[in-house]
Design brief:
The complex is a heterodimer of chains A (about 90) and B (about 160). Chain A is of the alpha/beta class. In chain A, about 35% of the residues lie in helices and about 20% in strands. In chain A, helix 1 crosses helix 3. The radius of gyration of chain A is 11 Å and the shape is globular. Chain B is of the alpha/beta class. Classes of the chains: A alpha/beta (about 90), B alpha/beta (about 160). Chain B: Keywords: Cytoplasm, Kinase, Phosphoprotein, Phosphotransferase system, Transferase, Transport.
Chain lengths: ~90, ~160
């Protein structure tokens, strides 16, 4: 299982999203490889991903993908991340 | 890696800003005044929002202003600006913003330790309202888990 956390620049916010996604997966007792990336390289990083995590502001920029797109409003809300990840992959 | 010590030079409280660009400029000025970045980095942080939208508003009331590493970034740095009146960035859920963190990183890897610390601070949902309400540096430092600065601690 591969999950890509996406932001505009690939640093900062995507790194926070990646870390908190890992914490949410731990709560769910699920294992996945979570990587942070920017929107421009998404075609490569998400080619083999099952889930793309991102902000509501970036959804429209994500091109055609086979991955489930999971939109996170509050990157620090582990309850939101846990619930949405569980729905996507649990 | 612990977060950098927040000092008078890296914190600005209840600053007037008319819009999101001015809010980012407040954080950008803290970064350039402390020589972590050149002034050009401020415009790059604004460009990120111009290009990609308000995704930097990563939680209710909180913007993480940042851009990629570049020649205009000299040191990894984190600054904190709070606004006298909240401003809208255009985020569908997390507007308006009253706390702007400014992050500058020299390499994509260098800030990974900070990210864990930032997450630890803000996974506590009281952190953003406490920062927004803070009137002293020590109150801000307390939110980040740091002890008060004693006189003489600062260079």
């Amino acid at each position: 299982m591969k999950i890509v956390a996406v932001c505009g620049s690939g640093v900062g916010s995507s790194a926070i999203l990646k870390l908190n996604a890992e914490r949410a997966l731990e709560r769910l007792d699920l294992e996945a490889d979570v990587v942070a990336g920017d929107i421009e390289s998404l075609g490569t990083t998400a080619a083999d991903a099952q889930v793309i995590l991102t902000s509501p502001e970036l959804v429209e920029r994500i091109g055609k993908t086979f991955a489930d797109i999971v939109v996170i409003d509050n990157y620090f809300d582990l309850a939101e991340l846990t619930e949405k990840l569980e729905r996507a992959i649990g | 890696m612990p977060l950098p010590e927040l000092s008078e030079a890296s914190v600005a409280l209840h600053v007037e800003a008319d819009d999101w660009r001015e809010a980012i400029r407040v954080a950008g000025a803290l970064l350039s005044d402390t020589h972590a970045t050149d002034a050009a980095y401020t415009q790059r942080m604004i460009d990120v929002v111009e290009e990609f939208g308000a995704y930097v508003v990563i939680a209710p009331g909180l913007a993480l202003a940042h851009a990629r590493p570049g020649a205009d970034v000299h040191d990894d740095a984190l600054v904190v600006a709070t606004l006298a009146a909240p401003v809208r960035f255009g985020h569908p859920h997390n507007d308006p913003v009253s706390v702007v963190l400014g992050l500058a990183v020299t390499t994509a890897e260098s800030h990974v330790g900070w990210v864990a610390e930032i997450a630890n601070v803000f996974n506590d949902e009281t952190a953003i309202p406490r920062l927004a309400a803070a009137t002293t540096l020590d109150e801000v430092r307390a939110v980040f888990g740091a002890s008060p600065l004693r006189i003489g601690d600062q260079a």
